[in-house]
Amino acid sequence: MQIIVRDNNVDQALRALKKKLQREGVYREMKLRRHYEKPSEKRAREHAAAVSRARKADRKRAERDS
Predict the structure, then answer these.
(1) What's this model's pTM, rounded to 2 decimal places?
(2) Has residue 1 got a pLDDT over 90?
């Protein structure tokens, strides 16, 4: 990952870096890796996320159709 600092404006470059890191999910992954997660807990979390995504897609589809 590369961020270009223009006109010695480090604050702007830092903001751009943080935004890129957040978009790629680095912060979320760091939070998950702070503590060990049992494989069964990981499966349950991923399953819950998949169900949530499916419900959201169904809601959007229903909203678009009506």
Answers:
(1) 0.60
(2) no
